Amino acid sequence: MENDKKKFDELDEYIKTIHATEHELIAVLHRAQHILSYLPREVQEFIADRLQIPVSKVYGVVTFYSFFTMEKKGKYVINVCLGTACFVRGADKIMKAFEDRLGIKNGETTPDGKFTLSSLRCVGACGLAPVVQVNGKTYGNATIETVEQILKEYEGE
Amino acid sequence: MEKVHIKINDIPLEVEEGTSILQAARSINIYIPTLCYLSLHIVHEHKINASCRVCVVEIKGRRNLAPSCSTKCTEGMEIYTNTQRVIRARRTVIELLLSDHPTECAMCEKNLKCQLQKIAAKMNIREIPYVGEVSKPNEYIKSEALKRDKAKCILCGNCVEVCSKVQDCNVLTFSHRGFKTFVGPAFDVNLDESKCVACGQCVNVCPTGALSQTSCINEVWEAIHDKTKHVVVQVAPAVRVALGEEFGYSLGTAVTGKMVTALRTLGFEKVFDTNFGADLTIMEESNELIERLKEGKNLPLITSCCPGWISFIESEYPEYLSLPSTCKSPHEMFGAMVKSYYAEKMGIEKKDILVVSIMPCLAKKKEIRRPQLANDGYPNVDYVLTTRELANMIKEIGIDFDALENGRFDNPLGESSGAADIFGVSGGVLEAALRNAMLTTEGKCKNVDFMDVRGYEGLKEADIKLNGMDLKVAAVNGLKNARKVMEQIREGKCQYQAIEIMACPGGCINGGGQPFHQRKMSKTIIGKRMEGLYMQDMSKKNRISQQNPYIQKLYQEYLEKPGSEKAHKYLHTSFSKRITIIK
Amino acid sequence: MCLSKVKTMEELFCLSENLKGLLDIKKGKANIAGTMEISVCGGTGCHASQSAKLKDELVRFAKQYGVEEKVKISITGCFGFCEKGPIVKISPDHTFYTKVHPEDAERIIKEHIVEGKIVEDLLYVNPLNHERILSQDQIPFYKKQHRVALRNCGLINPENIQEYIANRGFLALAKVLKDYRPDQVIDEVKKSGLRGRGGGGFNTGLKWEFASKYQSEKKYVICNADEGDPGAFMDRSILEGDPFSVIEAMIIAGYAIGADEGNVYIRAEYPLAIERLTIAIKQARQMGFLGENILGTNFCFDIFIKYGAGAFVCGEETALISSIEGNRGEPVVKPPFPAEAGLYQKPTIVNNVETLANIPVIILDGAEEFAKIGTEKSKGTKVFALAGKINNVGLVEVPMGITLREIIYDIGGGIKDDHEFKAAQTGGPSGGCITKDHLDIPIDFDNLSSIGSMMGSGGLIIMDDRNCMVDIAKFYLEFTVEESCGKCTPCRIGNKRLLEILTKITEGKATMDDLNRLEELSNIIKDTSLCGLGQSAPNPVLSTLHYFYDEYLAHIQKKYCPAHVCKALAKYQIDEKICIGCGKCAKNCPVNVIEKTDKPAKNPKLFVYKIQQENCIKCGTCAKNCPMKAIVLL
Asked: C235: alpha, beta or left, given left = phi > 0 and alpha = psi -120 to 50?
């Protein structure tokens, strides 16, 4: 809780520094998600209050953009690129392999909170297709076999 | 204004520059269906988001079909509204909407009043070729006053528009995106947990059954048929000039007599008039105004008849709760009198009396649950039915409304002055209070018509001389305007001593429980209802509340004088900060 | 870096002259001291393959071998040849090393820098004749390219404004401020014939002209860097490799239309581009190219970064503007166009990154020079992100009018694994496919539209006989359904229904009625949708229907997927002539649908097996376990 207060203070500080108005909502949400890793109701209400805008507007914006999440994510976020270049090189099979192996669907988090499986569209590393990112680290030329290797790398931790 | 020359379906036409194709077509009686187009005449704006794509037309030389609502006529434009391409596209759009919409029309609240249904009927749609996933579950969510049926929402955005742009309440919003988009309050909570004031304007503009009222018709039938209960009914002023619309009467026709007979036929023991409560409200409120002016405290006095407005100030401006008049709203005062004065007079036990109010309003459904609106352990009013629900009940038991004799309200609580009638229009309460205050303080009120505060402008001001004092008063309607006035107060820039505030644009005649205006919040509809009420006022012998003989009698027999201890017990209330789960 | 403000044009010309030598080595001019430069590609693809670590290793070994004075090691923007990344280029001799890993750092320093020997095994091998190729310009991938928008990518250090200035940076701005009235700038851009590279291909100069005609105290220039087409990444590469040219172009655009503020709307998914752009804007401010009284004139202009948040529809200009204003990124009806009432209702132009990157060149070399490149109605070059089943995945910039054949076979090195070319998708989810029949059509805006595709932002996905066109159409529809904003009915529900019909087809459940409906609905969605996203969403369906109708028919009538992609239609069958009756398939079948028949197998004591198709889950386990490879996918 104490920790949360600090995070809210940090967010508040940011809002003040950039003199945020309603037009900076998206920038503020980005910062909030950066600080808190997700955007639960309290955060959205906090932002609405600070920017003096209706919370319904904040909610409308948060739910519109796929980058924002209201769910707490796992420790490791596995992103399988489903951009065209990756798709034509079999990214859907990679996704399936992760789903089978982790027992969760795309967009879900494992019950132990360790892995979140999600997809994204094109990271621009089409030369390495299909591409998987784990917390920003990129694995190129993924195969069913590398799925296992990738998971092993993080499961131990 | 420049003129431009166009052709619609080969008919040459001259229109003003800036005219939309839709307006131009309507001016020569060419029908183009619309769903998301919302005419907001009385608040001076139209909502055109061109999102439903039902109104598309073909324009010569353009690659794609164009939405007629948002496309302006330009010189030489040749428009076709009925080519095969247009009809096929329009039909497909309706089919697509229906493919993601429940088709149990017979059970829908909006059956026969649904715009989607009407257009589908006109387009002769007999089957839906597109079958697939539906975006929202077919289940409804009830709050105290409103019922939301997500599956029926076609995302026209009308409700969001009135909730934000007209009422500035900002409760409803679009959320999520694409096929998963839906409309609701933030975090999709129940409306009762949001800052919704239940004005019901969203219900009025919803083209389908996605938003409707939480009905209590069944409970009222139960009560009527319960032999142990004495069920009385009272009717608000705005109902009588709108109910006729449900039975084919022209706009603004007062159907008071037939309505009274209909209510008797439904089985109510006594049919009373909320107007009586309105006269009573004026007695108390004008007294309160005179007192506050004398003391120079808690000014401006703001009216408190409108429960939507009260919910609004309780959540948005709780620091100013000393400003609204402590008077209960007219139907609540009335209920309190029924369950005290009337009960004692008639020798009926309070527990056996049930009071039903017929109201143009949805917020009243919420209001009757306030703990402050009860006396001696009984709520002042037990059920609120809207004008629409009353019409439904009349239809349900097969009453031929048109054939009804004119009836009269029961007494002693059925008589009223003309001042009470105009409670149903914006500015009316203020006008009634001014008439009464003038008569009280100066002993006469020569001119009872305060024209400055009439009409549908969002903010109307008047300068009044009252007993030697120069007063500045205002009548405000629509919560967006209410917010503006409250901000003036907050900034210390408010010059008024008395303000009437009504949540709905135009006042109660445009309330959330009135017959649907079919997405045309226009002067023709609202204005006619308005005229109807002023006609009622004019037709009365007494135009000032204190001239109502039964009011005088009530004070003599029971309440002593305005502001007395007893009056306070039964006729006044209190307000408190409203804490909602969603801030 | 200490950057001081350039106060006048004369100062800039002086500085430009002084800095010219900065890129000499990279441009191939040897100097007396024998200094060398190592450029390590810092584009996203190479970055993902540890190019940053590679650079650090190179620096470490340069020290270790005592050559840190002799060799300058820096990160540059994308070389485009992502397939062979990470790329390392040595100057001035232009040695081009491919697939370089951090472990190779020592050899490059020791052998190439210290001993002057080429590290042979890191050179690119021409797949046609298996010869090693020494320098970049000899590699077929680069031979037919013509770099205008990408002129600085791979050349300059994108985090050093001086290197940009060294390559004629900001001279276009100076020229404009010194010699041109705003309307003359617009005329020049109009004359060049430059068309928007983001999708629609609208004439850029005309767009500027519209915005310039509206009188307003405030106007905006917006750079659209919300590159959403999955499979296109040229805008990102430009911002990562040469952010300055975009900045310079925005300032010029601001001058032309009378704006004093620019916004770059960039995807949050592009952290590296954001970082480089932030640095570039900061340096440009320090040097006075942004801010008040630019180069001593009265003209003021500044640029701010706005972040996207994951919504493809925000590439549509009105949606983008809604998003910058802090709202849901929903498009609004046009007119009014942004040129009249855009950001905060002020006149606004929205230009794509690649479009802007061309502007300084047009100004410096003149519209006529620019217009010499390309076809009659499509001038200049186009950057394509070449991906899919092609040997040389990467970013290529080619003159308009080049043929697809040249791109695929000369630049792209042909189809992967020597398969057969089937189709190329241009324009991403809004485009359509080009087939074998169109391999020799000159690629430009109008030719692509005429064959039912579009230029789009320049994604070029190559498909071969292993790709199912119905599946591809379904893939794009899945994308649009997910990315539709949901505002208008045809796009929100119509595309969903299209996707459902396509799914039925790939599952073998569709009828001919469905096929007809697919086409009719596609046309109506195009005709009635509110914005460009909806209007173009059915393109992949219509274009595959047009060119690969037989493939659709096969799915529907024969319940057969010719490319063997659609799993529901896949059928495993045991070839009775090969089956030896060992029973391994039956033993391993997870759903026990393989049964022994009474037909004798090769070994007469045993019997052949048969798969009961109804309950087969098509997992392929049987095929994997068959020692005779007798089980085939039909």
From this structure: alpha
- What is the pTM for the complete model shown? 0.92
Q: Tell me, what's the pLDDT at B477? A: 96
Mean pLDDT of chain C: 93
d(CA B512, CA A24): 35
Residue B8, both tokens: 């619609």
The pLDDT of residue B239: 97
Residues of chain A contacting residue B186, judged by C-beta atoms under 8 Å apart: 44, 54-56, 58-60
pLDDT at B469: 87
**Coil vs helix vs strand at C436:** helix
Residue A71 lies in a domain: no
Asked if B501 contacts B476 with a C-beta cutoff of 8 angstroms, the reply is yes
Cβ atoms of B362 and B213 within 8 Å: the answer is yes
Q: How many CB atoms lie within 10 A of CB A137?
A: 11
Q: Chain B partners of C493 at a C-beta cutoff of 8 Å? A: 96-97, 99-100, 130, 135, 179
- Which residue, B153, B177, B210, sits at the end of a domain? B210
Range of B520's domain? 218-571
Whether the Cβ atoms of residue C502 and residue C335 lie closer than 8 Å to each other: no
Q: Which residues of C touch B54 (CB under 8 A)?
A: 489
The secondary structure of C293-319 as a DSSP string is SGGGSS--BEEEEEE--S-GGGGSHHH
- Contact of A55 with chain B, judged by CB distance below 8 Å, is answered with yes
Closest of C489, C499, C538 to residue B93, by C-alpha = C489
Torsion on CA atoms A65, A68, A72, A74, rounded to nearest 10: 90
- What are the distances in angstroms from CA B243 to CA B77, B260, B414? 43, 12, 19
Contact C292, C260 (CB under 8 A): no
- Where does C381-464 sit in CATH, by number? 3.10.20.600
Q: Cβ contact (<8 Å) for C311 and B177?
A: yes
Domain boundary among B19, B53, B82: B82
The answer to whether the CB atoms of A87 and C475 lie below 8 A apart is yes
User: Residue C564 and residue B117: Cα distance in Å, rounded?
Assistant: 45
Q: At what angle do helices B115-122 and B84-99 cross, to 10 degrees?
A: 140
Q: Which helix (H) or strand (E) holds C262?
A: strand C261-266
> What DSSP element (H or E) covers A28?
helix A25-36
Mean pLDDT confidence for B505-529 = 87
Contact C527 B52 (CB under 8 A): no
Q: What confidence tier does B267 reach under pLDDT thresholds 50, 70, 90?
A: very high
Residues 6+ apart with CB under 8 A from B335: B234, B277, B355, B357, B373, B379, B380, B381, B382
**Residue extents of the structural domains in chain C:** 35-142, 161-371, 381-464, 469-557, 571-633
Residue B581 has pLDDT above 80, yes or no: no
pLDDT at C227 over 70: yes
Integer Cα distance of A138 and B26 in angstroms: 60
Q: What is the pLDDT of residue C34?
A: 83
Whether the per-residue pLDDT at B474 is higher than 70: the answer is yes
> Tokens representing B237?
């002023």
Q: Are B100 and C493 in contact (CB under 8 A)?
A: yes
Cα C253 to Cα B573, C131, C363: the distances in Å are: 64, 47, 11
- Its CATH class, for the domain covering C571-633, is alpha beta
Lookup result for tokens 């002799």? C70
Cβ within 8 Å of residue B180, ≥6 positions away:
B135, C486
- Could you read off the pLDDT of B321-371 as tens digits, one per residue? 999 999 999 999 999 999 999 999 999 999 999 999 999 999 999 999 999
Question: CA dihedral defined by C540, C546, C550, C555, rounded to 10 degrees?
Answer: 30
CA distance C299 to chain B (A): 36
Angle between helices A55-64 and A25-36 (to 10 degrees): 70
